[in-house]
Amino acid sequence: PLALGLYTVNAVYGDTITMPCRLEVPDGLMFGKWKYEMPNGSPVFIAFRSSTKKNVQYDDVPDYKDRLSLSENYTLSIKNARISDEKRFVCMLVTEDDVSEEPTIVKVFKQPSQPEILHQADFLETEKLQMLGECVARESYPEGNVTWYKNGRVLQPMEEVVVINSQKIVDKSTGLFTVTSSLQYMPTKEDANAKFSCIVTYYGPSGQKTIQSEPVVFDVHYPTEKVTIQVLSQTATVKEGDNITLKCSGNGNPPPQEFLFYIPGEAEGIRSSDTYIMTDVRRNATGEYKCSLTDKSMMDSTTITVHYLDLQLTPSGEVTKQIGEALPVSCTISSSRNATVFWIKDNTRMQTSPSFSSLQYQDAGNYICETTLQEVEGLKKRKTLKLIVEGKPQIKMTKKTNTNKMSKTIVCHVEGFPKPAVQWTVTGSGSIINKAKETKYVNGKFSSKIVIAPEENVTLTCIAENQLERTVTSLNVSAISIPEYDEPEDRNDDNSEKVNDQAKLIVGIVVGLLLAALVAGVVYWLYVKKSKTASKHVDKDLGNIEENKKLEENNHKSET
Q1: Are residues 36 and 105 in the same domain?
Q2: How many domains does the chain have?
Q3: pTM of this prediction?
Q4: Rounded distance between C-alpha atoms, residue 500 and residue 54, angstroms
């Protein structure tokens, strides 16, 4: 390398400087010497080497004590390079007739330490010019140059927005530079999370280089521009009995810590932290909720619907009615939305709602009216009706001769609730072949059956008794030798209805015949009475008393 046309040696601070003597060794060389030149041009000799005696001598120069080394080819080495070694050194070769000189320029370079951003601001405020920090690059030579960056882009000075001031300090003992650059900056909201850094540019033996500091992110404070209210809930909908947590937030930094909450029914805002909790809410909590900053600026609102479901079952609980009575049943629903209603009887879902115009035993059971709001999780109501249908014992007895012609079966058909207890008694000779057998008690009905072989006509009595009444019915049964018409033991409801209809028809016919006979008798009586009156008039006109008597006798016979 050449500096101003001169040979230059570039050295790194702290390393060894090696300067060859760039002269050809002449014949008759007596010795070689190295010197350096003072700023005023005066020489200072530092090393001497004889070509004949091969000895080396170093001059008493304090700056180079124990640092010099002169080789046989007159190459000078200086250990632990310093900034003060930046001089013009000259190699001299001396003969008896001549002195040859060749200068060498020494340049020393020192890389700065990695720059640091010191005295960092705790936070930055928008719309305010303030000191962000100082970038410091220490112990460099020559001095470095500091540049500020934001998100990888150079920050250019701008009045009242970006203000950069730099200064350098030289250590007199080492000659090294420390460069400091301060940055004043007016941030915006967008500078939140921005990365600030500085880079120092310096020169080394091989040219220009850079070192970058670690990036720094500053907390940027800016005022709230918008307020938001939220409903924090574990479910998408709110129902009676739930807890509601309202959260109000502002988009400023730092965010506001206190707000005013406006609750339906409250005239004034309630001062609270960023959350407001309502427990066990009722339907009257439905409405518009608002929150604002404590200065009542920047407000936001939301609407909350507290869903509810009411069920009224009439009647409910345990109800006891008599068979044949009417029982109106109503299940009334009041809800925040359309609800689904269904009925369950004895754990079986019903297709229609129950309606009782004439209660029967099969109507008894456990009824449940249940309703749900499908859109609201967990909102379900149910009420129960335990219906008891009571009735006095009703008895019907049937008999038939068994196919073996050796016995007869007598059945006592019983209805009633609570279940009647049945007893049998026999009047006359004959024995009960077996004990009474009862069928299953279903819908208030069952039957008790006995088998007998009567030797003569007997009377069987069936006694049914429950808490309401004692009912007694008897049935005459002929001796086993006299066959009797079979009668069905069990009749279903349809057959019973048919029998009843047939009985009604027969009774109607009989009554009709009786009425017709009565009408005919009245007509005949009127006719005879009219005939008697006419005969009397004829007798009077003829004046035949004898014939009148005969006619009266005849009429009397006719009447008779």
Answers
A1: yes
A2: 5
A3: 0.57
A4: 158
